[in-house]
Amino acid sequence: MFVAEQGLFAADDHDEHDEHPATVHVLGFVHGEPAGTVRLYPLSGTLWKGDRLAVLPEHRRSHIGGPLVRLAVALAGDRGGSRMNALVQAPNVRFFVHLGWSPVGGPEDHLGVLHQRMTIPLARR
Predict the structure, then answer these.
(1) What parts of the sequence cross the membrane (predicted)?
(2) How far apart are CA 49 and CA 51, in angstroms?
(3) Angle CA(73)–CA(83)–CA(13) in degrees, nearest 5?
(4) pTM of this prediction?
């Protein structure tokens, strides 16, 4: 559903990070029903990347996106990360700023859609 809705990928969004043992796939539930997901993985040293945040349309009003992003940030910090980066679609920048993320540079085209590089410092819990 994510792939079809976003229109960013030809067939699917599977890449080399999906099967890497350090990649963490988080699945969020609302009332026991799968509702959203996010993926995180180390890039190099203590730098992590968060991506593939997706919430099913019928659960978008449940506000599960915030907890998914906060959990990804916490997990990366717990795994020794000092900073997390993400490439966020332009309409979602304010949401990420609200969660403590900061824009880096200006908006840029990514796969035909305007995105913003974002970053957040990490800490161990």
Answers:
(1) none
(2) 7
(3) 65
(4) 0.86
Q: What is the pLDDT of residues 44-69, one digit of tens each?
A: 999 999 999 999 999 999 999 999 99
Query: What is the Cα–Cα distance from 123 to 125, expressed in whole angstroms?
Result: 6
| Residue whose structure tokens are 């809705």 | 5
DSSP characters over 10-77: SS----TTTT-TT-EEEEEEETTEEEEEEEEEEEETTEEEEEEEEE-GGGGGGT-HHHHHHHHHHHHH
